[in-house]
């Protein structure tokens, strides 16, 4: 992930390398052990905080024989919710 690969706006997502600022939650580094990753600080949010969203640009995958989305996720902490991936508004 580089700064040009995402749109953060005021959504609360943070591009980071190394550990997050919270203890007992986020990863200590990205999966490769030296790159960047995106995280959303959920410590202190109330239960039921809706739809913390990270969106990508629209990608044309029509020329690909077997398109796939792959990623690593780290969901640890008392206030962590669920993960849902939507493609064109459909849960996949």
Structural summary, described in words:
The chain has 92 residues and is mainly β. Helix content is 0%, strand content 13%. The chain has no helices and four strands. The chain has a two-stranded antiparallel sheet. The two termini are 23 Å apart. The N terminus is likely disordered.
Assembly context of the chains = single chain
Sheet with most strands: 2 strands, antiparallel
Helix content: under 10%
Please report the number of helical segments.
Answer: 0
Amount of beta strand: 5-15%
Q: Which class do the helix and strand fractions yield? A: mainly beta
Task: Tell me, briefly, the overall form.
Answer: globular
Mean pLDDT: 76
Describe the strand arrangement of the main beta sheet, using strand numbers: 1-2
Number of strands: 4
- End-to-end CA span: 23 Å
Radius of gyration from the alpha-carbon trace, in angstroms: 15 Å
Quick take:
This protein is mainly beta and 92 residues long.
Key terms for this structure?
single chain, 92 residues, mainly beta, two-stranded antiparallel sheet, two-stranded antiparallel ribbon, 0% helix, disordered N terminus
Topology overview:
Layout lengths: L12 E4 L20 E4 L45 E2 L2 E2 L1
Antiparallel strand pairs: 1-2, 3-4
